[in-house]
Structures are given as structure tokens and as C-alpha cells.
Design brief:
Layout lengths: L1 E6 L21 H22 L3 E6 L17 E3 L18 E5 L21 E6 L2 E2 L2 H10 L5 E7 H7 L7 E10 L2 E4 L2 H17 L13 E7 L2 H7 L5 E2 L5 E6 L2 H15 L7
Parallel strand pairs: 1-2, 1-4, 2-3, 4-7, 7-8
Antiparallel strand pairs: 5-6, 5-10, 8-9, 10-12, 11-12
Helix pairs in contact: 1-4, 5-6
Length: 277
């Protein structure tokens, strides 16, 4: 089996603040990047308990060079470094049989969800595809779905798992924590989380025949609600984007891949207008 893993960090067990997942923080970040790395390893070990797997891991958090290689199996490949043109799904079009999303989180605006956001919270407040509100899980799952790759496993908090099951009912979720507020969590210990992730990954691969690629079929309308008018000013410079309102943008595409590429481009250029003096 060829397995693709996109690993984020905010959904790591115990993590409940931006400082813990900020590479500029020299105290807590080193602890949680190790826990993040161990959760990825647990997912790989669980998958391999079900069947042999050739694994590619895409480090998808922040600067995208968080994983500690000494915590990972020696026979996998890792995509590391910022910026990647396709961000959290870089390399996902290489003919995989299934995908894991580890350390993921709920989308911006979701209640009782730890550090909930969608890609870049200082740029994006809302993203809809054909009227469907999308978080990172759904946006990334739809991209992989265009290449026939189903998402088999999610790891993260309760709100993530609840949201994902609305559109990916087959997905196996390793719920390692639940939010008690935006910045607080009721979490498993790291050791318990690793055991849960490994077992859930084993189940996900064992039952992968039940999974389906998620797709937005046909032509696609991308609607973006920018976090600020300033960010929208920059996004609107991209040819093909319409601007129905001060923070609203719309892009029509013949298929989802083009819409996803437009979203990543808009997010990146929007950062130029997101910073205030």
C-alpha cells in the first residue's frame, strides 16, 4: 500500500496554545514538535500493523520543517520546507492508495474547538466550495480526491472528528482531546494518545475498502471571506477573482484542482495586506 500523510500540529495531544506550536518559542515548541513527530510515527506503525506501507509524509505545519527525523521510521520519505506550492497536500498526487491527516484541527468559527482556524487566520475567515463551508480537512480531502485518494484516518480533537464525519463518514478518527474552550483542552496523555492513534490507524488501513475519495464534481465556485478588507484588496488583484463585497471574493473554475490552486495563491498574496503597523 502507498500511504500519504499530511501532518499538522495543533491537533497534537495536550497542545492548547499558539506558543506550543510556534517555532519561535524556544521552551514549549521543542516539546510539542517531538510529540507531533511521535504521533506521526504511531500512525505509521499502526498502518503497518495492518499491511506493508510505502509512506510519504508531508510536514504541513507553519514553516513545514517541524518533524524530528530521529523519531520517525528510517524507511519513509518526508517532504520538508516552506513554502510548498500545494501547501498541506504537496506530493499528494503521486498515486497513493490512502491518506492520513494527523494533528489536524477544526475550521475557523467552530465552537468548542482547540485553536480552530482555516489555513491562515489572519487572511481567511471563511472558505466555501459550491456553497459548502470548508475547513482544512475538507479542502485537502477534496484535492486528494481528485487523484482518487481517500482519507482513511484523522487525529485531533473532538470538534475535528464531528465536523469531518459530515462529509467523510467512513473516516476513522483518533480523538486525542476535546476542547473546553478555544485555549484549553481535556486531553489524553501523550502515551495514551500514541496507543489510540496506532490502533485507529491499524483499523483505518484494515477497513480501507470502505473508504471513498471525496470530490466536488463538475465546475466549482470558490467563495472566500477574507479576514480584512486589506487582505481582500490584494487577493482581488489575481485575474479571475470577482469581489462581491469588501471582504468577499469569488472565483469560478472548471474543476476543483484549479479552485484549490487559486485559493492557495489568494491566501499567499493576501498575506501582503494582512499585516498592520
Amino acid at each position: 500500500m502507498k500511504l500519504y500523510i499530511s501532518c499538522d500540529m495543533e491537533g497534537t495531544a495536550g497542545l492548547c496554545s499558539w506558543e506550543q506550536c510556534d517555532p519561535n518559542n524556544t521552551t514549549e515548541y521543542p516539546i510539542y514538535r517531538r510529540l507531533m513527530s511521535r504521533e506521526v510515527r504511531a500512525a505509521i506503525e499502526g498502518a503497518r500493523a495492518a499491511e506493508p506501507c510505502d509512506v510519504l509524509v508531508n510536514d504541513a505545519h507553519s514553516r513545514m520543517h517541524n518533524l524530528l527525523f530521529d523519531e520517525l521510521p528510517s524507511d519513509i520519505r518526508v517532504l520538508s520546507g516552506y513554502r510548498k506550492a500545494l501547501s498541506m497536500v504537496q506530493g499528494g498526487d503521486e498515486g497513493f492508495d490512502g491518506a492520513f491527516f494527523t494533528g489536524y484541527h477544526a475550521g475557523i468559527g467552530v465552537e468548542r474547538a482547540v485553536l480552530a482556524h482555516t489555513y491562515s487566520p489572519n487572511v481567511l475567515y471563511g472558505v466555501r466550495i459550491n456553497g459548502v463551508e470548508c475547513d482544512e480537512t475538507l479542502l485537502n480531502a477534496a484535492y486528494l480526491g481528485e487523484f482518487g485518494v481517500p482519507v482513511l484516518l484523522l487525529t485531533g480533537d473532538e470538534a475535528l472528528c464531528t465536523s469531518a464525519r459530515k462529509h467523510l463518514p467512513w473516516v476513522r478518527c483518533a480523538q486525542v482531546k476535546r476542547s473546553t474552550d478555544y485555549y484549553s483542552t481535556d486531553s489524553l496523555t501523550p502515551a495514551a494518545a500514541l496507543a489510540l492513534i496506532a490502533e485507529t490507524a491499524r483499523e483505518a488501513v484494515s477497513c480501507r475498502a470502505e473508504a471513498r475519495p471525496f470530490r466536488f464534481t463538475g465546475s466549482v465556485t470558490l467563495d472566500i471571506e477574507a479576514a480584512s478588507v486589506e487582505a481582500a484588496d490584494y487577493m482581488a488583484l489575481i485575474p479571475g477573482f470577482m469581489r462581491p463585497g469588501g471582504r468577499s471574493l469569488r472565483f469560478s473554475a472548471p474543476h476543483y484542482v484549479a479552485a484549490f490552486q487559486a485559493l492557495i495563491a489568494a491566501m499567499r498574496i493576501g498575506r501582503g495586506g494582512a499585516d498592520r503597523a
